UniProtKB/TrEMBL annotation, chains A, B:
Transmembrane segments: 21-41, 53-72, 93-112, 146-171, 183-203, 223-248, 260-278, 344-363, 375-396
The UniProt record lists the keyword Transmembrane helix: yes
Membrane topology recorded in Swiss-Prot or TrEMBL: Multi-pass membrane protein
Pfam family, one: Voltage_CLC
Domain of life: Bacteria
Organism: Duganella qianjiadongensis
Compartments, record wording: Membrane
Protein name in UniProt: Voltage-gated chloride channel protein
InterPro entries: Cl-channel_core (IPR014743), ClC (IPR001807), ClC-type_chloride_channel (IPR050368)
Keywords assigned by UniProt, alphabetized: Membrane, Transmembrane, Transmembrane helix
């Protein structure tokens, strides 16, 4: 057959063999690291819940972690952004130390009650472990991009138990408005395997029950579009505020350990006033958001706790707090929009994340993986709407803008 | 907040209002057209099944349809490829006559027993109806791209009852290896609304029950990768053969009506020898493929009937025959791979299509919409594998190659 790109099966077999092996190794390392991490996170959360006084040590813990990063972690401090930068412009292998540093730092964040997530940790462990294969397989810089993406994919998939969302996340997060397929096979395979390996280590994921999803109709569609707009603005507020607060604190308190100490003190005072509702991952509150009405300020409370935690340098990530903010916000919007709590909590869960990370397809697929296919059309509308309304600067500063979200320009010849 | 792309909510409200209205109109036109088409298709199929002798008139029907296209349809003859070309390089509005011509031609194909599909028809009706809004809204050429994509999305979604797959298909089909998000909102909204409008007209979609999906494990994953490879090679064979046969017949018989007549005669002779198993959409055989073992030659038979039908110019489309070929091939592979019939039929259903249309994400999402989320990881692997192994020239000749499937090059600065 004549074709502008001649094709033969022989060409593809070495590609398939090599990347199946690499994806398997990435999944083994990343799935195992995620399992260890989730186990440690359970331990840290349980310890904090039974030893209330641990929260008083948060400022000190923040100081120590920041000091350690200052001494041995400046190269890996940029975290997720370092990985995204290396994928855009591959230069040198990500230091292996990123994995243990972010693991320990995040477990300490959670043990002492900072309000942070876990996707950053899983993604950074996945990325840095995967990148160590660069030497083993003598990979070219172009191939390193693919390995790093497979690592991100495996980390995300195994920490949340959502393999397809993990793979699409890794493809989608690099740039706003465009998704390339060159890493689709390694990302899919490593995500699915890493999720299996995590579960083989005995990891269980939280189960959120969205409950009844109402039939599609004019009102429910309009209501979900409106909710998506609110979710998008919340995502914009979160991403803008976290960048602004981080910059402000860096200017006010240039010495990182002191910054973490100050942030810790603010958090401790806030906990003294409001209790532990907004510390840590907050999974119990998220479960509540699917079950019964919650006060509207739960999302605001979590937003402020998370801003202070991330802005003052605590490690972990943004995504689980975004799930919390979205689920509680959806819960609060449900009576206003006359839709079930569980359904809107589920939509908020994925859509605030979609807007903040600029990953509408991964978030839609995540909704289907977590809540079932019936929520699909609603999740797609809420996530796309949130994506459109969240501006062009998400939580990942290294993410580039490939295609403007809502200014329609001429086709660039590369549709 | 400072940002390289300044953002304000006011900027986006006119965009949202305009495209919500356009997506609604596209969905109304396309969903209604699909409903009419599916109703006519049911009538045509039922008529053929009760009046066996209609098949003898196929060559004559082919002559008449080709003659009509020659007289009034040369501008719209290119069908799906015309739409894709206009999206890549918008020039002039697609003539409205594309819609009634392809509708009638496809119903005639099915009434007299050609082996063709229906997605081409739905997509062409959706695209040409949508493009008529260009005048009404005084759209710029760049905006026409988006309207055409929304039309494709709405047509695909409403004819198969798979809204998310329809939207992703429209974004994904334009170029191999890259997906742009500039049409994501109009495509999602028009797909979901068109599907609803089709159902409001009383349309029902065939339900295929994949049955038990085995738990993920080393063997099942490896088996599905192998099956994906076979599905991809089948897709490659189909796409290559349809282009080659079309070119050959054009050279041998330059006069289009005579070509259709000759193809019709071959099909009639084949039906006389083998019966009607491979004519029309073939939904009863597809349902069998999910239920019990079928002979391996069912997929080969359908492939040959479809090649002759499409190669000699019968209208309809490739996708439903690809579903048939994939489902029966999956069925035949099931005992060899020691996996359930229904599961492999479901995977073949989507994966041969994924390989031939180069739309692995739309096909994976379609699998979840049709067969439930449990099949997700398997469908993703089978579809991605089929995509990798199907070469760079799919069924749509106007599709461009944006990113090579398995040759890893330097990042192009536009990840």
């Amino acid at each position: 057959m004549k074709s502008s790109h001649p094709y033969s099966l022989l060409q593809i077999l070495p590609y398939l063999g090599k990347w199946t092996l690499i994806a398997g190794l990435v999944a083994l390392a990343s799935g195992t690291a995620s399992a260890l991490f989730l186990w440690a996170l359970d331990w840290a959360t349980a310890s904090r819940t039974t030893h209330y006084w641990l929260i008083w040590l948060l400022p000190l813990a923040g100081w120590v972690v920041s000091w350690v990063y200052l001494k041995v972690g400046t190269q890996v401090e940029a975290g997720n952004n370092l990985l995204i930068d290396e994928i855009h412009d591959p230069r040198k292998v990500v230091p292996l130390r990123m994995a243990p540093l972010v693991l320990l730092a995040t477990v300490i964040s959670h043990l002492f009650g900072a309000s942070v997530g876990r996707e950053g940790t899983a993604v950074q462990m996945g990325g840095s472990l995967a990148d160590q294969l660069t030497h083993l397989f003598r990979l070219r810089q172009e191939e390193r991009r693919i390995v790093l993406m497979a690592g991100i994919s495996a980390g995300f998939a195994s920490v949340f138990g959502t393999p397809l969302a993990g793979a699409i996340f890794a493809l989608e997060v690099l740039a706003i408005g465009r998704l390339r397929y060159d890493a689709i096979f390694p990302c899919m395979l490593s995500a699915i395997l890493a999720d299996q390996i995590g579960m083989a280590w005995g990891i269980h994921h939280s189960h959120y029950a969205a409950g009844a999803i109402v039939a599609l109709g004019p009102w429910s569609l309009l209501a979900v579009l409106l909710a998506g707009l609110v979710f998008g603005l919340t995502a914009w507020l979160f991403a803008s505020a976290v960048h602004a607060l981080t910059a402000l604190l860096k200017r006010l308190i240039p010495y990182a350990p002191l910054r973490a100490l100050a942030g810790g003190v603010v958090l401790v005072l806030a906990v003294a006033a409001l209790g532990q509702r907004y510390t840590g991952l907050g999974i119990p509150v998220m479960l509540e958001a699917f079950a019964h009405p919650l006060p509207w300020w739960d999302s605001a409370g979590k937003l402020v706790f998370t801003l202070v935690s991330l802005g003052s340098g605590y490690k972990g990530g943004e995504v689980t707090p975004l799930f919390f903010i979205g689920a509680t916000l959806g819960n609060a919007l449900a009576p206003l929009l006359n839709l079930p709590f569980g359904m809107l909590a589920a939509l908020g869960f994925v859509a605030v994340f979609a807007g903040a990370a600029n990953t509408p397809l991964a978030s839609t697929v995540m909704a289907i993986e977590l809540f079932g296919p019936q929520i699909g059309p609603y999740a797609a509308l809420a996530c796309v709407m949130a994506y459109l309304c969240s501006g062009h600067r998400g939580i990942y500063k290294a993410q580039t803008v490939a295609v403007h979200k809502h200014r329609i320009g001429p086709p660039d010849g590369q549709p």
